[in-house]
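Notes on consecutive records. When two proteins share a document, each keeps its own sequence and its own token line. Never mix them. Below: protein one.
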Amino acid sequence: MPAERFQFTGSEGQQLAAALDTPEGDIRAYALFAHCFTCGKDVLAAKRIAVALAAKGIAVLRFDFTGLGSSEGDFANSTFSSNVADLVHAADHLRETRQAPAILIGHSLGGAAILAAATQIPDARAVVTIAAPSDPAHVTGLFADRIEDIRRHGKAEVALAGRPFTITNQFLDDIAEHGLMTHVAKLHKALLVMHAPTDDAVSIDNATRIFVAAKHPKSFVSLAGADHLLSDRRDAAYVADVVAAWVTRYLDSAASEETADLGEAPRQVVVRETRNSKFQQIVSIGPHRLLADEPVPAGGEDTGPGPYDFVLASLGACTSMTMRLYADRKSLPLARTTVTLSHRKIHAEDCAECETRAGMLDQIDMVIAMEGALDAEQRKRLMEIADKCPVHRTLTSEIRILTRAAD
């Protein structure tokens, strides 16, 4: 679903440009996203993470700070403090027009700003930092060779990411005054620190300082192999996957209770195009949100499993669950089951036991590994039970599919 574009009033009266990415179905929670220094709301990392979280039922507000992107104001007049104030105003806007943000997410310097703003956003229950510095003054390393000029003349133009920006004494003074670790120690919210060990822009030591300063509950996730800007689409998708799963523990218990009984009755599966790419679909199953796509060689962007992947996953899950039910009922020492599946086309003439004698057939290869002190007879029986799972029976029996146009 395309992001909703609008403006809201920032801390100093300027109109700030914002985008709200919302799910196709029910909204589990709202999140506020702060982007990196001199970036904008549409920087790839921010946009990809927001879109992926929306696909998982989390609406995400991202906006351009003062003087950046399509927002009003002069960047030269902005400071770290004004960015923090703008984040608080963005949260206020969400609270007034939709729902207060339960999740705060910040990337790079945006992560530091989120930590500083979190205590002023009481509704937020979970905070996520991605490649964030432990000291906002870390950003001055990007223009260390110009600091003397800034101090001498009161301001200077510096090149950042190939673009000119004016940095003032006011910015340097303001950023030097922030004791970010004091904010972290008083956070009183769940914290997830995400950082790449090989980040060459903001070292992993920054994540260590943030994590040590924070009180529990706190978690750390390594973004192994990722660069600072999460330029690889797969890294942004991984961040969204982890955040969506982690934050569930800290959302309102009322929301969990509301969806707790959805599994008791058969649930509809709704699949809808996102139009974010050629093949990407959002799959809604009760409270669950998944992405479906095709792999790159097939013309997709591989943002989610393909249709046959879902078929194999369904068969594999059903097989493992059926074996577990039987093993528990018979008190068999089955410690863990692992089912590995693949799909391919074969020539009918190569299948002696198949009824079809010409053309091509679908074949699913399924390998089952069983852990535990099982004897040969128990393993044999469990393998027999594996082929009795309901999905297996559905796939190997006559299936009737009725298709009609929506009213």
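Protein two starts on the next line and is unrelated to protein one.
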Amino acid sequence: MKLMFIRNRNVLNTKWLVEYINTLQESRPDYEISVVCDTYKKVGSGCEFNHKVKLLNLSGKDKNPLRDLYHKIRCKVTPAWFRYKKLIKKEKPDIIICYFPTDLFNVTMFQKHNIPIIMMLHGTPDTVLGKYRDCKLGDLYQHIRKEFYPLRKLHQCGFKQVSVYQTLLKSFIPMVPSEFNPQKIVSIPNMVKQLTAEQYADLSTEKKKIIYIARIERDGKRQHRLVEAFGKIAKDFPEWVVEFWGLHKYPKYEEEIYNIARNNKIQDRVFIRGYSNNVLEVYQSADIHAFPSRYEGFGLAIVDGQAAGLPTIGFIDAPAVNELIIDGHNGFLADGVDEFAEKLAELMRNQKLRIKFGRNAIEDAKKYSPQNIAKMWTKLIDETVKESKHA
């Protein structure tokens, strides 16, 4: 079976994507997998595909100067869908999997083929599909957020060619709008690397440290809410600290975080550490993973922390977060900052409870093992191809 996976750029920068493709290939050696991108710039670095996986860059740099110049110009002045159209006609894949809506448009725009398409939704359906939806007359804010009307209508035609939508959580299934022709929607979560007992966080030794692993960002990740909650209880736990780990992107927001810490007189106990190349070491250094995010597409950092044996605390109204954290089992869910502070304090003062939640978290994370998720994907791929042949 010939499987064509589409992601337009930054392919080798996305560790999860490479691990997903490699696990799929290892699970099904009979698959002929090609990963296709279309960028004159680098396709990424740091990860490598299985030797059987074919990586195709339709506009990559070339050692031949004339061909290289041609690729550089062509990438800027001609539409990507034209190059994908030629490739699909040549390769004749049995199925296509698209990473982003842009990838879907590249394999459907002005094209007529009966190849089944699986559309991944890496986030809540509204986040991924929102700007392509129609909106009510008079809703100015919604109109501003949407695409230009003719382009939106053109893109909606692409969604009508989708055979299956894949969501990361079951609760996202009813969120896929009816105008996107959701004939079939399947929930398959992300793969999460499983750890050995030696790699688990040792909660029997207190580090008195709370961590949060996420990019430093106000609207979605909301690090300030953790600082606000910690500020309410910090005087009762003078040896505890909070560390934020993630990409630096918004200096003004980081200053806001530090200002909140100063106002609560905990400026020497709140730290923004930045990006880490050894995330497992960060998990192992902590007692609690606090996760004040407003929403998640899946919450990979949560499950990575659970796989390492950390208890987690989040907000009860945060999509994905409120599914991965089972209140009173592998962590706590809080309704508002005050309750977040109360439950955080309960975890901080109760080491036995942290250990119990951490053990439960390890067991819960096992269902996301690469082997289990690969089985779900191969089943979906095989069924989709079979159904298309009998359609």
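For the record: The chain is about 40% helix and 15% strand.
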